[in-house]
Amino acid sequence: MVKYVLKRLAIAVLVLFGVSVIIYTLVRFMPADFVDQKYQPLIASGQMDPSHLDDLKELYGLSDRSFGGLVKGYGKWMGNLLKGDLGISFYYQLPVGQVIFQNMGISFALAFISLILEFLIAVPLGIKAATHQYGFVDYSATVLSMIGISLPSFFLGAIFIRFFAVELRWFPVNGLSSSGLPNDASSWTIFWDMAWHLVLPMLVLVILSIGSLMRYTRTNTLEVLNADYIRTARAKGVSEHSVIYKHAFRNTMIPLVTLLAGTLPGLFGGAMITEQVFSIPGIGQKAYIALQQGDIPFVMGYNMFLAVLTVIGTLLSDLMYAVVDPRVKLNK
Question: Considering the domain boundaries, does residue 127 fall inside one?
Fold first, then answer.
């Protein structure tokens, strides 16, 4: 096990290096960099001399897009990274690590609660669809799951805002706090006000994710129900409830357990589009704005943060699969 983990970690270092090179190259070749985004409007309005633009690009290290310039810029970024320094965000004017960790909490809470609801709804629904294959429940769940998979997050979010927030006025339109909240409001009042603002974005995340998990559970359950030991249990007179929820369910959950580790990037990385639609000040929204502004240090730090979480999540998935299923042996 230790030898396997060390081997995977060595491969992960190479993967992360390749990812960093690709991300840095793509960001540097964006049509407009941070200086263009920030100062072109000032030049267009006559408030700034165009000759100063090159000086600013030189100051930010964005002037040279040649191969040598890219190598030099990447080498400088990598050197700082090895020292534990992700750099200073161009747009937020704060250390990249500080911006990430300060805004990660709300994104984690949103994603974590949505994940719990997703499993609580999708797993029973998938099992129900499998045990009633080609029945009303199966077809209904399939149609609903396909709708959830097909809808873009911004479209579903806009519908929810229009219907539940604007028309019915059941929920706030966006943000994390109500404008009429008194300054001396208690912590409990602030908490529930924030929770009420997160209901619609949670619903969007759950609906968009529930379909694929439900179909995955249904497929796994159907495979298990056709196994020989299930036929044997039924032949022995075991009740159908025990066959499904005692014998089949245990093995159905084996692949699903490994999915939990793979959700690590989503838990900490934020839901970029959903947070933007509902104006949730999480890490996803911060990353979206930084990408629009051509904020190279933040984009690099954020994407490398996600890459590291993805590598860790993949490794944990493999390890968890071996733990929950003794038949699986890790290759050393």
Answer: yes
Length of the chain measured in residues? 332
* Residues paired with 95 in a beta bridge: 88
What gap in Å lies between CA 72 and CA 125, rounded to an integer? Answer: 54
Dihedral over alpha carbons 101, 103, 109, 112 (to 10 degrees): -60
Domain hosting 12: range is 1-29+65-100+290-332
Note the pLDDT tens digit of each residue in 203-223.
988 888 888 888 888 888 888
Q: Are residues 260 and 184 both part of a single domain?
A: yes
What is the pTM for the complete model shown?
Answer: 0.81
Same domain as 96, residue 111: no
At 226 the three-state DSSP class reads coil
212 and 308 co-located in one domain: no
Read off the pLDDT of residues 257-274 as tens digits, 9 standing for 90 and up. 777 767 777 777 777 888
Q: Do 11 and 75 reside in the same domain of the chain?
A: yes
For residue 280, give the nearest of 291, 270, 290 by alpha carbon: 270
Determine the Cα–Cα distance for residues 121 and 148; give it in Å rounded to an integer.
13
- The phi-psi region of residue 262 (left if phi > 0; otherwise alpha if psi is between -120 and 50; otherwise beta) is alpha
Question: CA-to-CA distance for 12 and 313, rounded, in angstroms?
Answer: 11
- For residue 86, tell me if it sits in a domain: yes
CA distances from 315 to 96, 107, 212 (A): 26, 23, 22
The total number of structural domains in the chain stands at 2
Is position 42 within any domain?
no
Is residue 264 domain-shared with residue 190, that is, in the same domain? yes
Task: Write the DSSP assignment of 37-105 as a string of letters.
Answer: HHHHHHHHTTSS-TTHHHHHHHHHT-S--SHHHHHHHHHHHHHHHHTT---B-TTT-SBHHHHHHHSHH
